[in-house]
Amino acid sequence: MGNSTRLYDQINQATTRLAQLKARELMAAQREAARHRETARRNEALRRSQLGALVFAAGCEELPDGEIVAALLNYVAGHPDAEGRARARVRGDAHLAALAAGCVLRKH
């Protein structure tokens, strides 16, 4: 009877230890998922801030929101090909570079 009690205790201890390890593993996975969600949230907030800064860099900060959205929608509808988008990107990059160098006069 002593051996079976001892064996039962060992099984019970091993089961408890396994449950603890599984709980730690689950908690670690939850922490990792929370870190990923927080990183994604920060990246989205940064991107939104960058997009707002681009509206200012283009000198369009005084336009109503609807006009800004309409201009973007018109652009997307009118430039479906890669070549048109590449031309627009070159023009935009040149404007941003000139703005950074202080060579662009802003309309105010």
TrEMBL record:
Question: Which Pfam families does the record cross-reference, listed alphabetically?
Answer: TraD
Superkingdom, natural source: Bacteria
Q: By what name is this protein known? A: Conjugal transfer protein TraD
